[in-house]
Specification:
The complex is a heterodimer of chains A (303) and B (239). With 303 residues, chain A is α/β, with parallel strands linked by helices. Helix content of chain A is 38%, strand content 27%. In chain A, helix 4 packs across helix 5. The longest helix of chain A is centred in the middle third of the chain and has 18 residues. Chain A starts with a strand and ends with a helix. The mean pLDDT of chain A is 89. With 239 residues, chain B is mainly alpha-helical. In chain B, helix 5 runs parallel beside helix 9 and helix 5 packs antiparallel against helix 10. The longest helix of chain B is centred in the middle third of the chain and has 34 residues. Chain B is elongated, with a radius of gyration of 19 Å. Classes of the chains: A alpha/beta (303), B mainly alpha (239). Chains A and B meet through helix 2 and helix 3 of A and helix 1 and helix 6 of B.
Chain lengths: 303, 239
């Protein structure tokens, strides 16, 4: 597989605190890579190091197969970024904001209208950014990031502070880009639902460490179903099943079955009824990705 | 690359009052002399009697306010220029563009030194204009006017480098503003300061009575402080 971004033991320390610890990111080409982790896990610090804004304490970054330390400028020519809260010049119009960046990246002038159209800000082009809503500022930030036709787009919490319709709009835009523009997108968020909607690949970071990295499908497979049984006198029922050689989980007065075939469930129910226990409920429980995410991040390294 | 950065930086200072300040500074300095000579009837004649060389005496009067205006102007201009990037932390956007970090610093310095150069040129022009208006004699000393207009500019370059560094690397604008206040107080009492303090240099005074010394010191120390500031700016992480 071709990787657009590869980090090797990337580490950043602020004094004694380790913000990013031995990170080995691998971002495959053409994917929307969701970079997921609770606030303060080290997402922004990692993204800043990918952009050369911060110097790693140790480790290395390769983007497009080139060493960031040696070829920062030629790499950044093909990278667009929106880091945390959007940056803009509030005394300038949207058009002038884009123009100030366009002059530096050397894109053709028509590009400005194109990106304004893409983020639906064409009508507000000549208005000062001062009066923009947060959503519009965020979209302007994306327009700026798209000016140089990047091959890698890095978006740090792009839906932060947006209203629901703004979030949906942003989501659709992010989904469209890899297909239409042949882009690889790296998007960070602390909300799993957000990543789940757009990402095809996921990396989970917690306390500076990468604790999961694979396709979103693989992550979903971790979300295995379980059968929940609520019965009378659950403790004894659990032991009764154990005596018959059926292994179950017993938590909070509920019996959980790993085995899920119809026959297996029927057998368990039959045994319980035969032994004189009342079966109140037989339910299927599907842990959400959220549960998995929480489990992963709570443990620190629950690999 | 630096040309592109400059073009972007000149666009960014639009509507921020930097150009206005550039015009206002020299205008104010010369306007004060118009007040001095013309506001009170008979004052002009009295002033003209006090020296043999009316032009030189007039130029010395003008130049008594030039250092103050320069020191104040540098503090305000650098603070305004840095605030453009600081307001929404646009540094992180700017530095993530395919440009060398040192170029970013150089562009800012170049914009500000250009504005100050324009202010100095305007000072030359306004000084000349008022001199003609006051009818100070037929032999206009262009070289002297130029000296009084441009020497303080070169002598104040270290202050520009220092202020630009302070304004760009501190998240808290209180620090560069305090520096500006201290600088203004220093410049107000420049005649009491030792020769080695850069805040004295724009006054063009020194123990040898040779203004050119301050110019050379200004350019030399300015280059050193600029380089140090730029290296430090490039070394720092962008938060």
């Amino acid at each position: 597989m071709e990787y657009i971004v590869e980090t090797h033991n990337l580490t950043k320390r602020f004094g004694k605190e380790i913000a990013v610890n031995d990170l080995n990111l691998k971002i495959p080409k053409g994917e929307v890579y969701g970079f997921l982790g609770p606030n303060g896990a080290g997402k922004s610090t990692t993204l800043r190091m990918l952009l050369g804004l911060m110097r790693p304490t140790a480790g290395s970054v390769r983007i497009f197969g080139k060493d960031l330390k040696k070829e920062r400028i030629s790499i950044l020519r093909n990278v667009g970024a929106l880091v945390e809260n959007p940056s803009y010049y509030s005394h300038l119009t949207a058009f002038e904001n884009l123009e100030a960046v366009r002059k530096i990246v050397g894109a053709p002038k028509e590009k400005i209208d194109e990106v304004l159209e893409l983020v639906r800000l064409s009508k507000a082009a000549d208005k000062k950014v001062n009066g923009f809503s947060l959503g519009m500022k965020q979209r302007l930030g994306i327009a700026i990031a798209l000016l140089n036709d990047p091959k890698l787009l890095i978006l740090d919490e792009p839906t932060n502070g947006l209203d629901p319709s703004g979030i949906i709009e942003m989501r659709n835009l992010i989904k469209r880009l890899p297909k239409e523009k042949d882009m690889t997108v790296l998007i960070s968020s602390h909300l799993l639902a957000e990543i789940d909607q757009v990402a095809t690949y996921v990396g989970v970071i917690s306390k500076g460490k990468l604790i999961f990295q694979d396709s979103i499908k693989a992550m979903r497979q971790k979300a295995r179903r379980k059968i929940r049984l609520k019965v009378s006198d659950a403790n004894n029922a659990y032991h009764a099943l154990l005596e018959k050689g059926i292994k179950t989980d017993f938590r909070d007065n509920v019996i959980y079955l790993d085995e899920q075939s119809d026959e297996a469930v029927a057998e368990v129910v039959e045994i319980l009824v035969a032994e004189g226990y009342s079966v109140y409920r037989v339910e299927e429980e599907q842990p959400s990705l959220e549960d998995i995410f929480l489990k992963m991040t709570a443990g620190g390294d629950g690999r | 690359m630096i040309v592109k950065l400059l073009a972007a930086d000149f666009l960014k200072i639009k509507r921020k009052g930097l150009w206005l300040l550039t015009v206002l500074g020299p205008f104010g300095v010369v306007l004060l002399q118009w007040f001095n000579y013309e506001l009170v009837p008979g004052r002009r004649e009295w002033l003209l009697q006090r020296s043999d060389d009316d032009w030189l005496f007039y130029l010395q009067n003008v130049s008594s306010f030039t250092p103050l205006a320069l020191v104040l102007g540098i503090a305000i201009l650098t603070s305004l220029a840095a605030s453009i990037e600081n307001e929404t932390n646009a540094w992180k956007q700017l530095v993530a563009l395919p440009v060398p970090k040192m170029g970013v610093f150089l562009a800012k310095f170049t914009v500000l030194s250009s504005l100050l150069a324009v202010a100095s040129a305007l000072l030359f022009f306004f000084t000349w204009l008022l001199g003609i208006y006051l009818d100070l004699g037929s032999a206009t000393p262009y070289a002297e006017i130029a000296k009084f207009s441009f020497y303080p500019y070169f002598a104040s370059l270290p202050l520009l480098a220092l202020h630009l560094w302070a304004a760009t690397v501190s998240n808290n604008q209180g620090i560069p503003i305090s520096l500006g206040v201290v600088g203004f107080l220093f410049a107000s009492f420049s005649f009491k300061l030792p020769d080695w303090l850069p805040w004295k240099w724009p006054s063009l005074q020194n123990q040898w009575d040779e203004p050119l010394v301050n110019v050379v010191l200004g350019i030399g120390a300015g280059a050193i402080l600029y380089t140090a500031g730029m290296l430090d700016f490039a070394r720092r992480d962008v938060k």
